[in-house]
C-alpha cells in the first residue's frame, strides 16, 4: 500500500528528464533514452545541454535510433565533421551540413512529430558576453530551433559563436552543465538525471585555459566562466547527489568511464558506447517507471 501511494503521488508530479552533455559520450545517453522511448516512457519535459540537446531533440521528435544512425553513417564524412570543416568554416562539426542539410535531406528530422509532441523541450546555452546560462524552450521545429540546438553544442575553440536573438552563444555546459536546479525551479519535481561520467568523477581545471584566454580575450566574462567551470560542475554533482539522497531525482550514470573521447570518427566505437547506454537503460527501466509513477 505504501509503495502504491508513493507511485500515485509521483504520478501527479511534473516529470522531467535532465541530460548533461559530454560531446560523443552523448551517444551513451542516446542509448538510454532510445530504450525509454521504445518502452513508451514520456516525461513532461526534457532539458538538454550540449550533446544532451543535440541528441535529446530526437526524444521530442519521437525518433529512437536516429542519433546513432547519422553519427555512424557520417563518421568519416568530411562534410559532417573534421579538420577540413574546422579550417574552412570555423566549426569542427559543420554547421550547415550537420544542422540544416542532414536533418532536412539525408536523415530527416521529424518536424511534425516535434511540433505535436506535448513534451516541453529546453536547451541550455552560454551567453558569451555575460558568461551566464540562457535557457530556451523550443516548441516548434524551425531553422532557428536547429541553431539553438547548435549553439548549445558549440564547444569553444572547436566552434564559432552562434548569433541568435541579439546574443552571442556557445556551449551551455560552460554555465550550467547539469541543469537540475533550473528544472526544479520551473516546476519539474520528479527528475531523471542522465550523467555521462561514473560515480566519483570530479572535473579538473581546464588545461587549455591559456588557449581559451587567447581565443576569447574580448569576452572576459566567458573566460571567467570557463576558468571556474570545474568548480561549478563539481558543486552541481553534489547538488544532484543530495537530490538523489532526498529522493527528488533518479540518477543514471555509466558504471565506468565511457570509452570514447570528445571527438570520434570510429563508427564501431560509437556503436559500442551506444549499446552500453542501451544496456544501462534496460537495467533501469523498472526504476524509471516506479520513480515516474507509471
Describe the structure.
This protein has about 290 residues and is α/β, with parallel strands linked by helices. About 50% of the residues lie in helices and about 15% in strands. The protein has helices at about 1-10, 25-40, 50-60, 65-75, 85-90, 95-105, 110-115, 145-150, 180-185, 210-215, 220-225, 230-245, 265-290; strands at about 15-20, 45-50, 120-125, 135, 160-165, 165-170, 190-195, 250. It starts with a helix and ends with a helix. Residues about 1-10 have low confidence and may be disordered.
Mean pLDDT, as a whole number?
Answer: 95
Sketch the topology as an H/E string, one letter per element. Answer: HEHEHHHHHEEHEEHEHHHEH
Helix-residue proportion: 40-55%
Largest sheet: 8 strands, mixed
Sheet-strand content, in percent, reads 5-15%
Ranges where pLDDT stays below 50 over 5 or more residues in a row are: 1-8
Number of DSSP strand runs: 8
Count the DSSP helices: 13
C-alpha Rg (nearest Å)? 18 Å
Structural class, judged by helices and strands?
alpha/beta
In short:
With 294 residues, the chain is α/β, with parallel strands linked by helices.
Labels describing this entry:
294 residues; alpha/beta; eight-stranded mixed sheet; 13 helices; 48% helix; globular; disordered N terminus
Q: How are the SSEs placed, and which strands pair?
A:
Elements: H1 2-11, E1 15-19, H2 26-38, E2 45-49, H3 51-60, H4 66-73, H5 83-89, H6 95-106, H7 111-116, E3 120-127, E4 133-137, H8 143-152, E5 162-164, E6 167-171, H9 180-185, E7 190-194, H10 209-215, H11 220-227, H12 229-245, E8 249-252, H13 267-292
Parallel strand pairs: 1-2, 1-7, 2-3, 7-8
Antiparallel strand pairs: 3-4, 3-6, 5-6
Helix pairs in contact: 2-3, 2-13, 4-13
